[in-house]
Specification:
The complex is a heterodimer of chains A (292) and B (414).
Chain A lengths: L2 H32 L6 H19 L3 H27 L6 H24 L15 E4 L2 E4 H23 L1 H11 L1 H6 L4 H23 L10 H15 L4 H21 L5 H15 L9
Antiparallel strand pairs in A: 1-2
Chain B lengths: L4 H24 E8 L6 H19 L21 E8 L4 H13 L5 E4 L3 H13 L4 E3 L15 E2 L5 H17 L6 E7 L2 H17 L2 E8 L7 H10 L3 E5 L2 H13 L8 E2 L7 H7 L7 E4 L5 H4 L1 H14 L5 H20 L4 H9 L3 E2 L9 E2 L13 E6 L2 E6 L14
Parallel strand pairs in B: 1-2, 1-3, 3-4, 4-5, 6-7, 6-8, 9-10
Antiparallel strand pairs in B: 10-13, 11-12, 13-14
Helix pairs in contact in B: 2-11, 2-12, 3-4, 5-6, 8-9, 12-13
The chains are: A mainly alpha (292), B alpha/beta (414).
Chain lengths: 292, 414
């Protein structure tokens, strides 16, 4: 194993990790806000990728330009999902946790089925884009441009999110609702509105990730499944509900995955991620940056 | 629920009303179970397979002027002109679901035989269930060699398995080497279920026997979000030939990641699967000029056997795609099975099994480059000769074996 191989693996792992973080942050945000795990998160990613693909196929819009459009569309979608489904699911008096799980899980299955019906199960790809298939080579280390762009977008998104949560009124309302939903109602904040916007924001972030991923990943109705699993472990590792935790968790997952593949047969590379997660559970069950 | 007298009465009346229909149905149609992944990562394979089977059914059930068994008659003459009816079941690429679906097809849909199933791992469980219920299983497009060596009586495969395919690859390497091409090192890249593992085992065995060195043997997890680490290892090994055994998703990811990491293999010789699929070439075909894949089918055969082109047209009208390695085997599998049912003159599992075992279809009466269809005692057809195809200028040309080749191989690939 040469130094070059190690650096290349870690660099690939870091880039992928930032993207994992961007995929996971919406999940962390929604969970932090209202303690609901969105089991349709992978399917949100899937429709974002399809949206980006169709904008490319019908209007020749490059996925990077399409990213804000896709994020906006997903924002609306997320808010609607909250208002039509989750709002009612959280009202359940008995077995509230189960009702939430099955309502979002059911949504996931329906979305997959609808996608397969309308889009067919065929694999789609964005064949030409500004950055697709191009790489930058620095001293023998290859950095694929789509992943570089993805990493940059992820960092911008995290920066923006940090500013938004800490510096804007809505961000403060979000934080306050998350601390004590009952108390905010007393000061005139509409809980439903905040939750809907929170779902919208969470979906918009995964929309951003989906648009970027459509540059270099194949698209089909089940594409969300493998990424959703990684998003869940990312959130659990970083700390439930912590936006910064998702960011750090993503990077850790990316790096651990890459280094496991260096040491063990690649078919076992996800073992490393879960081994690290189990270790974290052992030492710090709320996750690395969990505050609860 | 309590059973009241009224319920019993209702049930009895319904049964009495339906009985004559069921009896009539038995003579006028032959029900065959078809099980494929129709949702999940490989759902498109199931959709395409459905088109292939419907094309074959059309040819069996109606009169066509083809030199294929049963094409010239309407229905099965051995069963008084009975028509074939297919019942499709989705196993989602999951061996456990495959087991449940096979059981449902046999016990509830009353199929007389099952055909399937793309993934070899699912064929394992389906064939076990079929064996238990004494229902023939025709493996149309599974290629793992370990499927037929388990001593199952009701398992039949007309198409080649991966040891035969792999032998064709090594025969081709030996021939190239004789002409002075340098081929010494191989890199294996295979997914981690029975298909990839069996394929790699066959490749390792032949490489050792014939003196090729394996410099990388990478087993990866199917549908991984990223293959950077795997490709990095292939790149450092830089073998003379890269030999992937991958389904479509991983094939696309492999080719994209190779391009991103600046790895240009000297040659790729693929164990078909994803590398036979249009979706893969739609996605990354521009990076695959000169890729070689094994196949059991070649459209080049249409020049010699015009029926191949006509059947391809029938299939294309339904699916929008040319017949490929998978769909051709699926088509042929149903023809072989229907031919046996016709000769069995019965839908009884044991009689169909005996008829399948006695199958003898000359190669000219197939759409494949095979010598003939004749099963050995394990249910494998050893006269199914594989071909090697090279992707040149957006289509496949046959480059091996020499008797079927229409072009010289381009080596190394571009």
């Amino acid at each position: 194993m040469t130094a070059e191989t190690i650096i290349q693996s870690l660099a690939s792992g870091l880039l992928m990790g930032l993207l994992y973080g961007l995929i996971a942050v919406g999940l962390a945000l929604i969970f932090g806000l209202m303690d609901v795990v969105n089991f349709a998160h992978g399917e949100f990613l899937m429709i974002a990728m399809y949206a980006s693909f169709f904008l490319f196929a019908f209007f020749a819009i490059d996925p990077l330009l399409a990213a804000p459009l896709v994020a906006a569309a997903l924002f609306v979608f997320g808010a609607v999902v909250y208002l039509l489904i989750v709002r009612f699911a959280v009202r359940a008096k008995a077995n509230a946790g189960m009702v939430q799980i099955f309502s979002t899980f059911g949504l996931a299955i329906v979305m997959r089925g609808v996608a397969q019906f309308f889009f067919t199960p065929d694999y789609r790809s964005v064949t030409h884009s500004w950055f697709g298939g191009k790489t930058v080579s620095i001293g023998g280390i290859f950095l694929p441009q789509p992943q570089l762009i993805g990493a940059a977008v992820a960092m911008l998104a995290f920066g923006g999110l940090y500013y938004f949560i800490n510096r804007t009124d809505f961000g403060r309302a979000l934080e306050a609702t998350r601390e004590d939903a009952g108390a905010v109602a007393l000061v005139g904040i509409d809980k439903n509105r905040v939750f809907a916007l929170g779902w919208g924001l969470g979906a918009a972030l995964v929309g951003l990730a989906g648009a970027i991923m459509s540059i270099f990943f194949y698209i089909y109705p089940d594409v969300g499944a493998s990424f959703a699993l990684i998003a869940y472990v990312t959130v659990a590792l970083g700390g439930f509900g912590s936006v910064f935790g998702a960011f750090a968790g993503g990077i850790i997952v990316g790096l651990v995955e890459a280094s496991t593949a260096l040491l063990l047969p690649p078919s076992l590379k996800s073992v490393g991620i879960y081994a690290v997660y189990l270790l974290v559970v052992f030492v710090r069950p709320r996750g690395l940056f969990g505050s609860m | 629920m309590t059973i009241t007298r009224r319920n019993v009465l209702l049930g009895a009346t319904a049964a009495a009303a339906l009985a004559p229909i069921a009896a009539r149905a038995q003579t006028s149609e032959v029900v065959i179970g078809v099980t494929y992944p129709m949702s999940g990562a490989n759902a498109q394979i199931g959709v395409d397979a459905q088109h292939a089977y419907v094309t074959a059914t059309d040819i069996i059930n109606n009169k066509h002027d083809f030199e294929l068994p049963l094409a010239k008659d309407a229905g099965l003459p051995g069963l008084g002109g009975a028509k074939i009816r297919l019942v499709f079941a989705d196993h989602q690429g999951d061996p456990q679901k495959g087991r449940a679906e096979a059981e449902r097809l046999i016990t509830q849909e009353k199929v007389c035989a099952i055909i399937g199933s793309y993934q070899s791992s699912v064929a394992v469980t389906i064939s076990q269930i079929c064996e238990r219920y004494q229902t023939p299983f025709v493996s149309a497009d599974n290629s793992s060699p370990s499927l037929h060596t388990r001593g199952l009586k009701f398992f039949f495969r007309a198409a080649p398995h991966d040891e035969m395919f792999t032998k064709a690859m090594f025969d081709f390497y030996d021939a190239l080497k004789k002409k002075g091409t340098k081929i010494e090192t191989l890199a294996l890249f295979h997914e981690d279920t029975i298909f990839g593992t069996d394929s790699a085992n066959a490749q390792i065995k032949l490489a050792n026997e014939r003196g090729y060195k394996i410099v990388a043997d990478i087993k990866y997890r199917s549908n991984s979000p990223s293959l950077s680490a795997e490709v990095q290892q292939l790149k450092s090994a830089n073998a003379d030939v890269l030999m992937p055994s991958s389904y479509t998703t991983d094939g696309i990811m492999l080719v994209k990641t190779m391009a991103e990491l600046g790895y240009k293999p000297k040659a790729i010789v693929a164990q078909a699967a994803g590398f036979s699929e249009k979706a893969l070439y739609d996605a990354v075909g521009d990076k695959l000029e000169g890729v070689i894949t094994r196949g059991s089918f070649s459209l080049d055969l249409a020049a010699k056997r015009p029926m191949v082109g006509k059947i391809n047209d029938l299939f294309k009208a339904k699916s929008g795609k040319d017949l490929n390695d998978n769909t051709s085997r699926e088509f042929m599998g149903l023809i072989v099975l229907a031919d046996a049912i016709n000769r069995a003159k019965s839908t009884d599992g044991e009689k169909i099994r005996a008829a399948l075992a006695a199958t003898e279809i000359p190669g000219e009466q197939t759409i494949m480059p095979w010598k003939r269809v004749k099963f050995d005692e394990l249910g494998q057809n050893n006269d199914a000769d594989p071909v090697l195809l090279q992707y040149i200028g957006g289509k496949f040309v046959t480059i091996s074996p020499p008797q079927g080749a229409v072009a010289e191989a381009v080596w190394p690939m571009k």
